[in-house]
Amino acid sequence: MVASDKITRGVLLSSSVLILLVAGGMILSLLKGSIPAFREFGPGFILSPHWDPTAGNERYGALPFITGTLVSSILALAICLPLSMSTSLFVAEYFDGSGWSKVISTMTDLLAGIPSIVYGLWGFYALRPVIVSLGLSDQGFGLFTSSIILAIMIVPYATSVSSEVIRMVPKELREAAYSLGATRWEVISGVVMPSARSGIVASYIMALGRALGETMAVTMLIGNSNRMPTGLFGPANTLASLIANEFGEAQGIKLSSLIALGLILFLITGLVNWTGKWLIKKIS
Amino acid sequence: MKKLLFLLTIAVLAMSCGNSTSQREGKGVQLVAAGATFPMPFYNLAFKKYGELTGSSVTYGGIGSGGGIRSLQDRVVDFGASDAYLSDEEMAEMGADVIHIPTCIGAVVIAYNLPGIDELKLTPGLMEGIFMGKITKWNDVAITEVNEGVSLPDRKITVVYRSDGSGTTFIFSDYMSKVSNEWANGIGRGKSLNWPVGIGAKGNPGVAGTISQSEGTIGYIGSEYAFAQKITFAALQNSSGKFIRPSLESVSAAASGDIPPDTRVMITNSDSPDAYPISGFTWLLLFKEQAYNNRTFDQAEATLSAIEWMLGPDAQAIASSVNYASLPERAVERAAELLSTVTYEGNTMKK
Predict the structure, then answer these.
(1) Where are the domains of chain A?
(2) In this prediction, what percent of chain A has a pLDDT beyond 90?
(3) In the predicted model, is pLDDT for residue B12 greater than 50?
(4) What is the pLDDT of residue B175?
(5) Shared domain check, B131 and B249
């Protein structure tokens, strides 16, 4: 018994330390790789709207991509919110345990398993023509199109966690409210939502995190313009998409700038998670 | 648990050893090369054939020209490959003399999507106007003047460019810099550019897909991809004033002039009257002194013979079969001259 305990302990400890080492190593190598860029352009790197790879006139700034990343992800979250909120209430509160609920849950879980390239293809061949025919943009590429795809991609994450949390609200609470004569809506808004709040917020933070880092589907739809975005229907680019595009042929200061973009994305994701944790603590 | 891991490691090791011994059967030498993705279909086929003939194997990794140069610089490959020749500064950074051996010629075609319009003629002036965003409509007088008899629609022009760094973009921008001062001063040449207008798509397939799916678009695509895909492309006015459609012949014609001894030359906007103007060599790069990093004489000899084979008629025929223009005689001569200068521990390798 003692020996097996020791082994278990050892395995658990070493895996945890390994994860720590990997995360620490990633931060270190990102920091190290981005030093030349920050040395060359200073902290202004983050706020400069110019990304000019022209040889002899190279200057790099992260602002267009930070903007593209934040705008597309937050817009995606805004589109996702009503969709996933209603779906999770439908599945977990109104029709919990029914056949409908099972079908819808399975379908949303299925959406989570689709590779992002497939979302990209669908967006390219099906969604983009719709945007064009609505007259929203000339060729259908841009922030708005990628936000819609991102929203669809993150709906399953938000939905499955939120509905799980809603299910976990104790039956006794609901029954007590009903016995006092509350309507269904009053039960949802007055009892279920308040007690499931922190879990629901957590699910949306997770969904936002996923949207921030999404690469392939965005690259296929955002138009990959390295200038400051001028509108929701014009082309733009995100941090992850730019890195994926440019990494192969990048050298010298450009390579370092791309690594710096990676560091910025890492920090943004970290900040989102931290804000999420803080929010959860505050409301629960 | 630990025992299991250990066993697994042993198994993996055994498998990998088994693999390498089976590859080393016979007197073959294993060569590793890496670089440009543009000539990859040609290289893969040609090196495979070379392996069948000689028993040596060449593993080519299409990691991009930049990666190929880095790998050679780090001495982790036997030779590299690039779509752009090394600049003098880059040559100096390599730590030893590097020679460039051209293997084939590719081109960049101007593809567009205008339903019902199969023939479009473009002049250097129109190229500048369209790709710099000064001409914004397809029925602009500047375009209709050149294309008499073609009814161009009243549609916005959308430029599509490569969003990833690419040798195709390099050749395209090299041509643009030669024919347009405004382009040369404002945008210049490079593997990725600061585009004033348009949308980016990843890779030749991305650009081709975007163009084929969206009316009113125009963009540039590597010829090896465009020829294989039956894409509609424009005829370009070359430096002799002739409108030339890209084809293996017109691309090969771009290299028919004299070539400098080190073959480091861009053949865009060629003087040759039948040349398609956006053409370019792609090169294999190797160190002039082959004894480095404990490389054996056999390895050096195999490197030389593999590269030499790429210049021969068999390999050049493979190039044409996958839509690359073959090297003109003068380029093959120059390449052979260069290969004869390769040394091992200071001694010339070729008799």
Answers:
(1) 63-283
(2) 70
(3) no
(4) 96
(5) yes
B153 touches chain A (CB under 8 A): no
The separation between the first and the last C-alpha atoms of chain A, rounded to the nearest angstrom, is 41
Residue in chain A nearest B84 by alpha carbon: A249
Q: Kindly state whether B71 is in contact with chain A, defined as any CB-CB distance less than 8 angstroms.
A: no
Helix axes A239-246, A252-283, angle to 10 degrees: 150
Chain B residues near residue A246 by CB distance under 8 angstroms: 164-165, 192
- For CA atoms A5, A7, A12, A13, the dihedral sign is positive
Looking at the structure, do residues B216 and B343 belong to the same domain, yes or no? Answer: no
Give yes or no for residue A130 having a pLDDT over 90: yes
B135 and B96 fall within a common domain: no
How much is the mean pLDDT over chain A? 92
Q: Which residues contact A21 (CB under 8 A, 6 or more apart)?
A: none
Homologous superfamily of the A63-283 domain (CATH): MetI-like (1.10.3720.10)
CATH of the domain at B74: 3.40.190.10
pLDDT per residue as tens digits for the range A92-110: 888 888 888 899 989 988 9
Q: Match 């699910």 to its residue by tokens.
A: A203
Of B63, B67, B214, the CB nearest to A139: B214
Question: Closest by alpha carbon to B160, among B111, B115, B226, B193?
Answer: B111
| Residues paired with B60 in a beta bridge | B33
- Which tokens is B340 given? 């004869």
Strands B30-35 and B79-82: parallel
> Same domain for B248 and B287?
no
If asked whether residues B126 and B268 sit together in one domain, one would say yes
Q: Strand B98-112 vs strand B217-222: parallel, antiparallel, or unpaired?
A: antiparallel
Q: Which residues span the domain enclosing B60?
A: 2-106+280-348
Phi, psi of B176 (to 5 degrees): -60, -40
Residues listed for chain A: 284
Detail the DSSP E strand segments found in chain B.
30-35, 57-62, 79-82, 98-112, 121-122, 158-162, 199-201, 217-222, 235-237, 243-244, 279-287, 343-344, 347-348
The answer to whether residues B269 and B163 belong to one domain is yes
pLDDT of residue B20: 41
Instruction: Return the pLDDT at B258.
Output: 84
Are both B122 and B89 inside the same structural domain?
A: no
User: Which residue from B68, B79, B101 is spatially nearest to B259, judged by alpha carbons?
Assistant: B101
CA end-to-end span of chain B, whole Å? 60
Among the residues of chain A, which ranges form H helices? 2-41, 44-47, 63-89, 99-113, 116-122, 128-133, 143-167, 171-179, 184-187, 193-213, 216-221, 239-246, 252-283
- Determine, for residues B199 and A53 on separate chains, whether the beta-carbon distance falls below 8 Å: no
The pLDDT tens digits for B41-58 are 999 999 999 999 999 999
Nearest Cβ partner of A249 from B191, B195, B214? B191
